[in-house]
Each structure stands twice: as structure tokens, then as C-alpha cells.
Amino acid sequence: MKKLTILLASIALVGLSSCDEYLSEMPDDRTILDSPEKISEILVNAYPGYSYAQFSETMSDNAFDTETIAATTDTNLRSFKWEQVIDDGGDTPAAFWNASYRAIAHANQALEAIKELGDKPTLNPQKGEALMARAYNHFMLLQFFSLAYNPSTADKDLGIPYVTKVENTLNVKYSRQSVKEVMDLIEKDLEEGLQLVTNDYRKKNFHFTKNASKAFAARFYLVKGNFNKVIENSNHIGTQASSLRNYEAWSKLGIYERLASYASSDHETNVLMATQYSTYRRTITKNRFGFPSAKTTSTFLGTNPTGKTWYYSTVSTNQVNDFLPKFDEYFKYTNQTAGIGQPHVNFVLLSNDELYLNRLEALVMENRIPEALTGLDFFLSTRTSGYNSATDMMSLDRIKAFYKLKADEFTPFYSLNVDQKYMLKAILEIKRLDTFHEGLRWLDIKRHNIEVTHAILGETTQVLKKDDLRRAMPLPIHVVSSGIQQNPR
To answer: Using CA atoms, how far apart are residues 294 and 300, in angstroms rounded to an integer?
Structure first.
């Protein structure tokens, strides 16, 4: 099998100035991880520093051609057409790839230190976090750079390298494992990590706490089709309003207050967040392929199955696109005098809101439809202005009358009956709105093999058909240049 050179940037862990120094000198004391506190410090970097949201959202059916020719950029256009993105700057697939493997390198550094310290029970919290972070980063890479998980083909489909050791030489060669192998390794790390993680953090929302770990486990098992495991890892969520986002209160805030509030650590629903280098707050209104004002009505108005109005509300800034005010930029100055620095955005990586909807889907797949309907009613009550439990309750007949289901709209690797398809339609459409701009719609598109159509002014309409090989994004150019086989197109 051809080999892959991954630039894990592990030399960034020690900050030395040359390769020779790195290979010949003892790393400084920042890399001598001889205490729980030092291991915890390095685990702060076990979360990706770059985001997938922009390119993921652009590939999905949440993006449209605004026909504003002057706003065309190469990266935005290539993402919209499911092509190879050349740029490797922020908010690109290459940046996300590098950031994810850099995070994995830090997790592995922590795990190696724990092993060298005798794998003591006192280090279980750090070990649990490192395992969860390693599993999460590999899982998200797999969602973008490989085909959707299908147990009948997973042992043959190209996965990604699952890295479990610390690099101590430069340009280590790695093999692409199969999707099945990667999924098995993710599950192994995840299940072990779940038993060890703790809630003992000063800033809980930025670490794999118990609830964050369960939210990730539910997302993983939804992809794997193990619906009992999804339910098991979401039993704690219940129907407590405090654990979901208070959209009514959020919708009443001003634009800037909403921007600051959405990804705030004050909200219980935001179980895992990361501060990432990103210009998404700026480009979300400027990209040619995004969310034009003309699509607001058809997307958000008249799409509530109760017939009432969503609390979701978009903002128009008289630029190319409307947007939901979810992302607030923090500009970190590296040189205050020169005005030089880097833009950062807090992204919600895992939430109770997504977990709740994933649970509803799992209940449907287990044919527990009455429970799913009860849960859907509760979720709608938190998102609908003027919700009345006496008149707005959902029934299967009401859902079938409201939602238009296309033939073979959902074709995952498992079978669906008609009732399940209609319930799934309702849940996924609501989830689409709830996670708008966050890039998560792409995961549902891949998982359920949903066809996507992108119309481009003056060009042939682009259609991402079912089982289209372009559902696995091209590997970054610098990865392919090392000799590994590119994903077939």
C-alpha cells in the first residue's frame, strides 16, 4: 500500500528552531510531562485550531449561488462544486486536516506521558480526555475525507491514517487504513475514554467532560447505525428545558448580543467548544456561494410544521448573504502597535441540541415512534413562537401531511419503512435549521446519502448524486504529493 507522510507538526510541541536541533537536543521542560498538571496543559491543544464549518456548509444544500459575480473566490467556488481546494489557508480542508492531526499529536503526547508515569489511576481524567480527543479528531477527518460508513464496503473503502504514537523522527510514513479499521479504532478509544473522563475542569465547555463525551458517542453511533448506543448515551438529556438552548430569549437579543451569546460558555447546551483561527464571521456575509436573502423565506418561513413562526431569525447587512448571528470574532493581536494579529471564532463542536435530535432519530430507528413524537413536540416548543401544547402537538398523520417526501430521498445502508422516512424527514429538516451555518448538515447528507443540487449561473447545474465518489473530499495537495493515492473522483 502506498504510504502517506503526515506533517503532524509535532516539532511545534517543543518550539525548536531547526530540524537538527530537534533531533539532537533534549526538548525543553515544557515537554517533560511529569505531572497531571503538565499533561492537562498539553491537552488544551488536543482540539482542532481550524474549523470545517465554512467549506462543509458550502458543500451542503444550505448554500446557493447568489449570482454576485464580483464576490466569487476560488476556494468558495471549488467547495460549492465539490472540487479540490487549492488554498491551504484558514477555513480550508488542508488547514482542518493539519489542525486535526496536530491536535492528535498532542493527545498522543499526553498518552505517552501517562504510560511513562505508570498509567496511574490518578491520571485517569487526563487519559480519558486524551482518548476522547484522539477519537473525535479522527472521526471528524473521516467524515470529510472518506466515503460514508457502510458495513458492507467499509473494509475496502479508503479511510485515513489512525495515528496512535508520538513522532520522534521527521517525516514518518503512514498508511491509509480502511474505513472499518478507523471506525473500530475510534470506538475503542471512545469506549475507554468514556469510562475515564471527568467534569473537573474550570472551563468545562472546552474539554471532553462526561456529557461532551456522551454527545460525541451518540454522533459516532448514529453514523455506525448502533441506535441503542445512541439512546444509551443520551438518556441523561431527558426533556429538561435548561439543557437546551433558550431560543426565545436569544431571539430577543440585539444582533451583537446574539453574536456574543450563541457560543458562550454560559449556556448548558454548549457541551464542547473550541476557539479556532477563522475569518468565517467576515466571509459568511460576503461569499458568492452562501445564503442569499431570497432564500430566507423558503428556508425559514413557512417551514414550521405547527404552522407558526420559528424563533430562528436571520440578519441582513446589505451584503451578499443573510446569516444567523452565531459567530463572534475575537481578534488576537500579535503586535498591538502594528495592528497585526489573527481572527478567532468560538465554535460549538458538540451541543445538547444536536444530541437531543440525534436521540429522536435513534428512537425512530428503534420503532419507538410515540416517544420520538413526544420528544419532537418538546423540541418544537423551544423553537416555536406562540407554541400551544393543546393545538400544536405532532402526530404521524400531521407530519405526513406537512412534509413532502421524495422517492428514495434517504438511502442509508440500513432499511427504512414509510413511517420512519417521514419522521426522519421532520427531524432532519428541523436539525438542518437548528445547526444552520455550523457545517453539520454535511454529516447528515453523507449518512443518509441525500442528493444535493447546486445551480451555478451560466454553468451546467452540479448534482451530487447518491453514492457519488465526490462525497469523499479530495485529500489536501501536500498530502497527495507525498505519494498516497488520491480519493477517486
So the answer is: 11
Residues 6+ apart with CB under 8 A from 131: 107, 111, 189, 190, 192, 193, 196
Query: Nearest 10 degrees: CA dihedral of 12, 17, 19, 25?
Result: -90
Rounded CA gap, 161 and 173, in Å?
10
Task: Give every CB contact of residue 31 below 8 A, 6+ residues apart in sequence.
Answer: 13, 14, 109
User: CA dist 473 to 73, 174, 179, 253, 264, Å?
Assistant: 19, 19, 14, 38, 31
Give the count of beta carbons closer than 10 Å to the beta carbon of residue 265.
12
pLDDT of 396 > 80? The answer is yes
- What pTM does this model have? 0.93
Domain formed by 3-480, architecture = Alpha Horseshoe (1.25)
- Asked whether the beta carbons of 324 and 315 are under 8 A apart, the reply is yes
Residue with cell 520522534: 168
Give residues with Cβ within 8 angstroms of 185, minimum separation 6.
135, 138, 162, 164, 177
For the ranges 16-25, 35-44, 214-223, 288-297, the one whose mean pLDDT is highest? 214-223
Contact between 79 and 120 (Cβ < 8 Å): no
Nearest-Å Rg of the Cα atoms of the chain is 22
Q: How far apart are the C-alpha atoms of 123 and 42, rounded to whole Å?
A: 14
- Exposure string of 113-136, with b = 16+ CB inside 10 Å and e = fewer, is bbeebeeeeebbbbbbbbbbbbbb
Q: pLDDT digit string (tens) for 12-68?
A: 343 333 323 322 233 344 468 888 899 999 999 999 999 999 999 999 999 999 999
Determine contact, residues 407/144, Cβ cutoff 8 Å. no
